Amino acid sequence: MKGKSSILSALIILTLGVVMIIVNRSLTSQGVVIAGGIVFLVASVLNIWSLMRSPKEGARRSWGASAIGWITGVAGVILGVSMLIFESAFVALVTFLFGALLVIGALFHFYVLAISYRPVALPPWLYAVPLLLLGAGVYELYNFGVQNDSLTNIITGSGLVVFAIGVFLESYFIGVHNKAVNKPSRVQHNEPQVEDVSHTEIRTLDDPQK
Known about the structure:
This protein is mostly helical. The chain is built from eight helices and no strands.
């Protein structure tokens, strides 16, 4: 995910996370599956649209980053559609699915911080984002089979909020870096040209040669 599409996807994920936390008692597993399917579908379509819309940017990225983008995008679309069509089959797997989702989100942020944006040095404290996601995901996977919709909603919603905040912070620091890199070139481009007078001949007023 790049640029505006990543911010838009993060806003959608943040909204879903906040809603899951607020209505954790009334939101059933069936509602979670439907909401999760919609989020997967929308976010993945935005990711694929971003990859198709920026072929030049994709050419500058490594083949590994492009492959991961396409794989996650297509897999997200398939999973989202499956959750909406086979809703009843996914209800029993809610805790496992969202635990796996948080672990995948943690791996995504680990990849972004360690590899994707090199040589940009992002603040080390940003690793708190994937660590929190990994902890929440492992907890949900460990408690798979325990029926507690309210707790699942709170943990998953909090994880989605953390994921979205991580995207916002990474985008901010990348934007700051890009501005710092591009600023010297713009200053040099706009710098007025000064005529070199070191070799200019100076003549007196009564010099006959003019």
